[in-house]
Write a structure and sequence with these properties.
The complex is a heterodimer of chains A (about 250) and B (about 625).
Chain A: E1 3-12, E2 19-29, H1 35-48, E3 70-72, E4 75-76, E5 98-103, E6 111-113, E7 116-117, H2 120-127, H3 149-159, H4 166-170, H5 177-189, H6 197-210, H7 221-225, H8 233-247
Parallel strand pairs in A: 1-5
Antiparallel strand pairs in A: 1-2, 3-4, 3-5, 6-7
Helix pairs in contact in A: 2-6, 3-5, 5-6, 5-8, 6-8
Chain B: H1 15-22, E1 35-39, H2 43-55, E2 58-62, E3 80-81, H3 93-103, H4 110-130, E4 155-156, H5 162-180, E5 183-186, E6 189-197, E7 200-208, E8 214-218, E9 221-224, H6 245-252, E10 257-258, E11 263-269, E12 292-296, E13 313-314, H7 316-320, H8 330-342, E14 354-357, H9 359-365, H10 367-385, E15 394-403, E16 406-407, E17 420-422, H11 440-462, H12 473-491, H13 498-513, H14 519-539, H15 551-575, H16 599-602, E18 604-609, E19 618-623
Parallel strand pairs in B: 1-2, 1-9, 2-5, 9-17
Antiparallel strand pairs in B: 3-4, 6-7, 7-8, 10-16, 10-18, 11-15, 12-13, 12-14, 14-15, 18-19
The chains are: A alpha+beta (about 250), B alpha+beta (about 625).
Chain lengths: ~250, ~625
């Protein structure tokens, strides 16, 4: 049973151009379509009519690459908890619905076109310290370093972040604390991360501020939309790590 | 031109050591004077860029994504093999080597595979040192599992996200080098051509996908780490932007393409639900450890699965392969699924799926245990299909997953163009005609962390490389060629969408060059591909302009290349008159339907040289010698 829907989509020709919401009618929307497949069909219609298709990023379409990211009816990644935009299916909507589609908005995420944004600020936060400094070639045998299973599992919970930026888009301050703290926590929990533990958190937090992300005011919106359900307790840990590092004079 | 595989002499276990010693070195103080251009930022590209940056070379990394962390290696689920023998169950470098050569149906180069098995142990050490959170046991040591039917437990994993964690490890190491200034990132760039000066790869031309600008970059060597060509089939488990463009354009400049007909169809994917579908989702084959595959015994049985009694079910893998059962290798499981669907015994609305049933496993272990093993996969299945696999059997069907073929490389991973190296899935070298589970991640990282740093250094240190800049004619010509092709595709202004053409080329590939191939079908396919290519250039409609962000234009360029590449895929399949691994020709099978190799006539690598679009490519053969593992009929009965 195909549905007809109205889409209200953010269109913006380029980074320095004004944008606006434009209405489109989506016909023959099948409940088994994914949200992005629905947009593919709408775009093919626009192309046939000679209109400019709606630009959006997507790649793996199975919720792991972090490329896609739309604000659907005001919610980053849309109505399904623990899911990315590409995993949302049209059975979540009813015939006749109007769906508002916008890009992830933040000062640090400039719009390039329509729904496509520049998230390279997140890469620069990682470059500032989100790693363990080991060169290829010199690593000791992997089993030299026993790590308790619960510690490793907890590190993995944080390491699952896909870097989509939904946490930033949903935060009223456009803070990148959930993203940054997930990496700080992953590496702070593991023995491999200890030598650079203090330096890492200070440099990553400073880079986060420099990129123009806002401050955290503990609203918890980030955790609510995170497709990997990363806990806000990571932010508490990052704050503690940062405080300890700065008190120690890092 | 004669193919020089440059395999070192001596016993197989010493070949790599010997090569490393023979290799030229580059003085640490001189390394920054060499620029290496790395195309692609998946496991192979990110690990190569990080390692070369650590050594002090000047590295530029190009990728089509907004961030290097999004490359499709991120989606690998199952795990990574390594011959650590941590389980004391009889594994060794030699056994991993042996299994990989056999699993590849004796169509891989022994020396490369042996080196891969040797490197596997270093990879795990490297990744753990980076902080990759592999699964662990309560005692704190690393956990392993048996994967894809292997008889030893040598697979390391990080939940169902091993590819993600390994890629993030490599990405973080690379970002450390970005911070240190040795690596420069160029995201949203698509390589469109290679610049060759005096026969050497000296740079590339790419499109800045954010601005539309055509850019030229010079260097001393180019590393293609651009993945496989699975999206030639339109529907595959690959990401929607995965493509063959960089490899194909290098092929058109003189890099030979080897064994394109070796494509892997993965047996456990979520079936197609309709025409709108843009990709297929893989369900890790670890599911076959506990799930039982079956279809109704009688064609046309429309009863819901829980109302079909045992007597009316056919557990066809357990029946045909009593010793391996549901764990037969991927190619065997996929063909068996196709066979039962061809008999009209497939299930679901389309009749193109089979059941993967966990009822017995849930009865035996309880739902909680099954949830702890596969919870995330079951959730993903529910999200896509709206069905609950704890209650109703999953439905699965094979889908294109991985491509063993790729650009031909010698033992040093260098293509037939001096200075052009090819790493990871983009090359052809290690998996023969079929790749074993958990071996793709191993190869990407072995090539990038541990092989390219030595062999690229040898090339840079031992080759006269005169100064060249992007003002050289070769760059101007490549730039004009790239822009010309863009202008040409925009100028068609026809009536059919790009996706329409992609679907059509994909359907041709799937129907004629998919799981089962015939000479007759391939002849038809070759003619139809040429017709479709002509139709594409007459009737495709590409919106927008060249001078800004235009995803439809990027897509059109990739599909245009598939219109040419698909012909080579079919030609290679047509010429190989045998069945082996992922290449199954119906004319060549044993009486009980298994792949029948012809070692007498086809124990070689087919490396194709481009002769022009629509012109027959020239075939060059690299003979394969098996000194260690003696080819035999694979048997999983």
């Amino acid at each position: 049973m195909a549905m007809t829907l109205t889409l209200r989509v953010w269109r913006q020709a380029g980074p320095d151009q004004p944008g606006r919401l434009v209405d489109y009618v989506a016909h023959d929307v099948h409940p088994d379509m994914s949200f992005l497949e629905m947009l593919d069909v709408v775009n093919d219609d626009l192309i046939r009519k000679g209109d400019d298709p709606i630009a959006f990023d997507s790649d793996c379409r199975e919720g792991i690459c972090g490329s896609c990211g739309l604000v659907i009816n005001g919610v980053a990644h849309g109505p399904d908890p623990g899911a990315t935009t590409c995993q949302v299916h049209m059975r979540r909507f009813a015939a006749g619905d109007t769906i508002v589609i916008e890009p992830f908005r933040a000062r640090a995420f400039p719009v390039l076109k329509d729904l496509v944004i520049d998230r390279s600020a997140l890469d620069r936060i990682i470059a500032a310290g989100g790693y363990v400094s080991v060169n290829a070639g010199g690593a000791p045998d992997a089993n030299c370093l026993p790590i308790p299973k619960h510690v490793s599992d907890q590190a993995m919970d944080s390491a699952q972040c896909i870097g989509c930026g939904a946490c930033v888009a949903s935060c009223k301050n456009a803070a990148a604390h959930l993203f940054t703290s997930a990496k700080v926590t992953h590496l702070a929990l593991l023995p491999q991360g200890q030598p650079e533990r203090a330096r890492r958190v200070v440099r990553m937090v400073e880079q986060m501020d420099e990129e123009g992300f806002g401050a955290c005011s503990n609203e918890g919106e980030c955790e609510a939309v995170c497709p990997k359900e990363i806990s806000i307790s990571n932010i508490a840990r990052m704050n503690r790590e940062y405080l300890k590092a700065t008190l120690a004079g890092e | 031109m004669r193919l020089e595989s440059r395999i070192p002499g001596g016993p197989i276990a010493d070949k790599w050591d010997k090569r490393k010693f023979e290799n030229k070195l580059v003085n640490p103080a001189n390394r920054r004077k060499f620029t290496v251009l790395v195309v692609g930022s998946g496991l192979a590209g990110a690990s190569a860029a990080a390692s070369l940056g650590e050594l002090g070379y000047t590295v530029k990394v190009f990728g089509i994504h907004d961030s290097p962390r999004r490359a499709h290696s991120i989606a690998a689920q199952g795990g990574i093999n390594a011959a650590k023998n941590y389980r004391n169950d009889g594994d060794s470098v030699y056994r991993l080597f042996y299994d990989t050569v056999k699993g590849g149906d004796y169509r891989a180069r022994e020396a490369n595979v042996y080196r891969l098995a040797q490197m596997s142990v270093n990879i795990i050490d490297q990744c753990v040192a980076q902080g990759v959170p592999f699964a662990r046991e309560y005692g704190g040591l690393l956990d392993n599992r048996s994967f894809g039917g292997a008889q030893v437990s040598r697979t390391f994993y990080a939940r169902g996200q091993t590819g993600q964690q390994l890629l993030l490890g490599a990405y973080q190491s690379m970002m450390r080098q970005v911070g240190a200034g040795t690596v420069q990132l160029l995201p949203r760039r698509e390589m469109l051509d290679l610049a060759i000066v005096d026969g050497q790869a000296r740079g590339l031309v790419c499109r800045n996908l954010a601005t539309g600008e055509i850019e030229a970059h010079d260097g001393h060597a180019v590393l293609l780490c651009t993945g496989g060509y699975g999206t030639a089939f339109y529907l595959s488990t690959n990401a929607v932007n995965s493509n063959v463009t960089a490899a194909w354009r290098a092929h058109k400049r003189g890099a030979f393409f080897a064994n394109p007909c070796y494509t892997q169809i993965h047996p456990t994917c979520i079936p197609v639900s309709g025409d709108h579908q843009s990709k297929l989702t893989l369900m890790s084959e670890s599911l076959r450890n506990d799930g039982r595959v079956w279809v109704p015994r009688n064609p046309g049985d429309q009863r819901p699965p829980d109302q079909i009694p045992e007597a009316d079910r056919d557990y066809y893998l357990e029946r045909r392969y009593p010793s391996f059962g549901n764990l037969v290798p991927r190619d065997v499981a996929s063909r068996a699924a196709k066979a039962v669907c061809d008999e009209g015994r497939g299930v679901g609305d389309t009749g193109l799926s089979v059941f993967l049933d966990f009822t017995d496993a849930i009865r035996r272990h309880g739902e909680d245990v099954i949830r702890s093993r596969y919870g995330n996969l079951f959730d993903m299945y529910t999200r896509i299909t709206d069905e609950n696999p704890y209650k109703i059997p999953m439905r699965i069907y094979p889908a294109v997953h991985y491509t063993m073929g790729g650009l031909w490389v010698d033992y040093n991973l260098m293509s037939t163009i001096p200075g052009l190296f090819v790493l990871g899935e983009a090359n052809f070298s290690d998996h023969g005609a079929n790749r074993l589970g958990a071996s793709a991640l191993m190869q990407g990282l072995a090539d990038g962390y541990f092989i390219a740093p030595y062999t690229v250094a040898n090339y840079l240190g031992g080759t006269p490389l005169p100064a060249v800049s992007t003002s050289h004619d070769a760059f101007q010509e490549a730039r004009a060629a790239a822009q010309g092709r863009i202008d040409q595709v925009l100028a068609v202004k026809g009536s059919r969408t790009i996706r329409d053409f992609h679907r059509a080329i994909g359907a041709l590939c799937w129907d004629y060059v998919g799981m089962a191939r015939t000479a007759e079908g391939l002849d038809q396919a070759i003619a139809k591909i040429a017709e479709l290519r002509e139709a594409f250039w007459q009737d495709v409609r590409v919106p927008g302009e060249t001078n800004n962000l235009n995803p439809a234009l990027d897509y059109a360029g990739r599909v245009a290349d598939y219109m040419e590449f698909a012909e080579l895929l079919a030609l290679d399949a047509r010429h190989r008159n045998e069945s082996c691994g992922g290449h199954f020709r119906e004319e060549f099978q044993t009486p009980d339907g298994e792949a029948l190799r012809n070692d007498e006539d086809f124990s070689y690598v087919a490396a194709w040289e481009f002769q022009g679009v629509g012109a027959a490519p020239a075939l060059h053969k690299e003979a394969l010698a098996f000194e260690e593992v003696h080819p035999s009929q694979r048997s999983y009965k």
